[in-house]
Design a protein that fits this description.
Elements lengths: L2 H21 L4 H17 L2 H18 L5 H16 L3 H19 L4 H16 L3 H19 L4 H16 L3 H19 L4 H16 L3 H18 L5 H16 L3 H18 L5 H16 L3 H19 L4 H17 L1
Helix pairs in contact: 1-2, 2-3, 2-4, 3-4, 4-5, 5-6, 6-7, 7-8, 8-9, 9-10, 10-11, 11-12, 12-13, 12-14, 13-14, 14-15, 15-16
Length: 339
């Protein structure tokens, strides 16, 4: 909260007193001033006091202006948003549902305000613990947005991303992968293969393909990410190192554990040199090396890597930490396997 925001709230409090005196409590200018004051209350005070201020304003706008007046709809939206921020998700959900009904009635389904109302309702459903309901609303929104805005509009791309994420949360990994692939194709066409968001989408495709059991597809997507990073950065740049870690894991999951172990060994050497022994990526590289040496039936390599992992865990986390204890058990297991 800044002093400027406090000053703005104080100015509107003083203005409101003057407007009420000059125009009366129900004048549209008075109601508009109260709405502005509610905004600055939200920015400075927040909480239930702001909710109550919006509730009083909404009651008066309903009485003076009616249920379908544009100013009434704006106040209902802002009240719902404030309830949402104060964690009254049930109240916010009821407000958003009422708002959507009114906006559809007043403006029709093709108006941008109707699309925004659907979007707000969907995110509130997600917050209320109904991901399936949120996904259903977002999928309906995507159909409408595609029809009204076309496939390349930024709002359509954002909704595609939300739908893909929602399908993943709902446990539909294959559906999420397909949705991310459609979004990826649009980004490649619009922004090129090396755009940051395009590369991030390749990573999401890789993750969802892997979760859906398409291990070769996941490897192919991770190879796209790594190739883009290598075009953008040196092989030992932090962004490239992260891509190499995911690529190495995908290589093993796709059926070549020995190849994965080799890639993790190379990755570990570079993370130690570039990032040092204390960096989390270095620790993950050690974990990957242990994992894939073991799966490659390289008992000696797995035991050595596990001992080094335990040593680093003890140094980083201390002897009694859960991670240290787990790596010690792992090291003992791998030593027994190498005997």
């Amino acid at each position: 909260m800044s002093s400027d925001e406090d000053d703005a709230r104080s100015a509107y409090e003083e203005l409101l007193a003057d407007v009420v005196r000059l125009r009366g409590a129900d004048h549209p200018e008075t109601l508009a001033t109260r709405h502005n004051l509610c905004h600055w209350l939200g920015r400075t005070v927040g909480g239930i006091d702001t909710v109550h201020a919006y509730e009083r304003l909404l009651a008066d706008r309903l009485r003076v202006l009616g249920v379908d007046h544009p100013d009434t709809l704006v106040t209902r939206h802002d009240l719902a948003s404030q309830r949402h921020w104060t964690m009254d998700v049930v109240g916010a959900l009821a407000d958003y549902e009422t708002l959507l009904t009114a906006v559809l009635r007043v403006h029709g389904p093709d108006d941008v305000r109707s699309l925004q109302a659907r979007n707000d309702l969907a995110f509130c459903l997600e917050r209320a613990g109904d991901p399936a309901g949120a996904l259903a609303v977002h999928e309906e929104l995507l159909v409408e947005a595609l029809r009204l805005l076309g496939p390349d509009h930024p709002d359509v791309l954002a909704t595609r991303n939300t739908v893909a994420h929602g399908r993943g949360r709902a446990g539909d990994a294959a559906g999420a992968a397909a949705a991310y692939e459609e979004l990826l194709a649009a980004h490649v066409r619009l922004h090129g293969r090396d755009d940051r968001e395009t590369v991030d989408l390749w990573g999401k495709v890789a993750h969802r393909r892997g979760r859906a059991g398409d291990l070769d597809g996941a490897l192919g997507a991770n190879e796209e990410v790594l190739a883009a990073r290598l075009r953008q950065y040196p092989a030992d740049h932090p962004e490239t190192l992260v891509a190499r870690l995911f690529h190495a894991s995908a290589w093993g999951e796709a059926g070549d554990p020995a190849g994965a172990a080799t890639r993790f060994e190379e990755l570990l050497a570079d993370t130690l040199r570039v990032l040092g022994p204390d960096d989390p990526l270095t620790f993950h590289a050690r974990v990957g090396l242990v994992t894939w040496c073991a799966r490659a039936a390289d008992a000696t390599g797995a035991a050595t890597a596990a001992d080094e992992l335990h040593t680093e865990a003890e140094r980083l986390f201390g002897p009694g930490h859960d991670v240290t204890l787990a790596t010690r058990a792992l090291a003992e297991e791998k030593r027994r396997g190498a005997e």
